[in-house]
Amino acid sequence: MLEWMHDESMVGKLHGDFASKTMEDCRQFIRKSKDGHSDIHLAIASDADEYMGTVSLKNIENGSAEFAIAIRKEAMRHGYSWFGMTAILKKAFEELGLESVYWCVSRENERAVHFYDKHHFGETLDIPAGILDRYRGVRNLKWYSVLKGDELDVRERVAGCRVIRIKTIPTVDSGELSVFEGGQDIPFDIRRVYYISKVPEGVRRGFHAHKTLKQVLFCPYGRIQLILENKHGREEIDLSDPSIGVVIEEPTWREMLWLKTDSVLCVAASDHYDPEDYIRDYEEFCSFIKG
Ligand code: TYD
Q1: For residue 24, what pLDDT band results from cuts at 50, 70 and 90?
Q2: What CATH superfamily is the domain 157-290?
Q3: Which of 118, 159, 168, 183 is most buried (most C-beta within 10 Å)?
Q4: 192, 193, 194: which to mutate for ligand 1, most atoms within 8 A of CB?
């Protein structure tokens, strides 16, 4: 914790004095967080159980709470922030039965604003006066909120490719079954299925596009970031839900970043394997889509 607290690049634009905190302050914070009622603080940990950051619900009262997050620099770009945020929001709504969660950032905190934009949180203008009061005198804040029942980061498209909800049937205490059928739920017949497994966290794969092949990509286990680029632009999406798939129907450069060890990437493809259909050179891909 002290590492990010004493890192000016991480806390410079946060509200609060972290630079003067000591190890004893951290110990006290952890002790207090264990018996907190109006505040909940949880550590975000890696698969190796290493501390990556803290997510909090503060001032829990009248069905609402304020969200906060701080992470180590090392934890950035690996999906830890999104993981921590969605986990604590789930707790807020499902376990604590809250109706709304609010938070704000300085508009000058470009990294944070970019993060919330990327995950499609819009600016909230109707923040209850009691909550605004806590920040009286602080200027240039951007407020956000999530209400109970809001779906998080539901996107229709990523780089123009359709994000589909795969039909998923839950069973009581026995998991769930997901299914899609070629030509029915997806716009092509399936000629080939392949999957990539046993990949360590942090590895990137892909780095190619297909000239004609159509595919559905999905992640039945784990967390994988999919970066797609085509004539619509370059966009990324984290696949961490077995009921989400991305349909690629046009030449699209793809890179996959394993955010969690042993995550599995599955692909249902419209044709048999054909090395001639691959474009593995990025410059060649750029010319191909321009042409
Ligand atoms: P590759 O396309 O390089 O994987 P990535 O998704 O990381 O880009 O595929 C790895 C190897 O598997 C490569 O030698 C080609 C082979 N392969 C097949 O033989 N059949 C297939 O259907 C696929 C997808 C790959």
Answers
A1: very high
A2: Jelly Rolls (2.60.120.10)
A3: 159
A4: 194
Question: Does ligand 1 have an atom closer than 6 angstroms to the CB of 195?
Answer: no
- Determine if ligand 1 sits within 6 Å of the CB of residue 21: no
Right CATH number for 2-147 from 3.40.50.300, 3.40.50.720, 3.40.630.30, 3.30.450.180? 3.40.630.30
Cβ atoms of residues 149 and 157 within 8 Å: no
Query: Rounded to the nearest whole angstrom, what is the distance from the C-alpha of residue 233 to the centroid of ligand 1?
Result: 25
Distance 246 CA to ligand 1 centre (A): 19
pLDDT digits (tens, 9 = 90+) for 233-286: 999 998 988 989 999 999 999 999 999 999 999 999 999 999 999 999 999 999
Token pair 């634009």 in the structure block, residue: 13
Q: pLDDT for 97-108, tens place per residue?
A: 999 999 999 999
- Does the C-beta of 208 come closer than 6 Å to ligand 1? yes
- Answer yes or no: is pLDDT of 189 > 70: yes
Residue whose CA is at the smallest distance from ligand 1 atom 15: 275
**Atom of ligand 1 at shortest distance to CA of 280?**
8
Plot region of 85 (φ>0 → left; ψ -120 to 50 → alpha; else → beta): alpha
Active-site residue (options: 208, 210, 232, 272): 208
- Contacts for 259 with CB less than 8 Å, ≥ 6 apart: 78, 79, 83, 201, 222, 223, 224, 225, 238, 240
Contact between 216 and 242 (Cβ < 8 Å): no
In ligand 1, the atom with minimum distance to the C-alpha of 196 is 6
Residue 273 Cα to ligand 1 middle (Å): 9
Task: Indicate whether 15 pLDDT > 90.
Answer: no
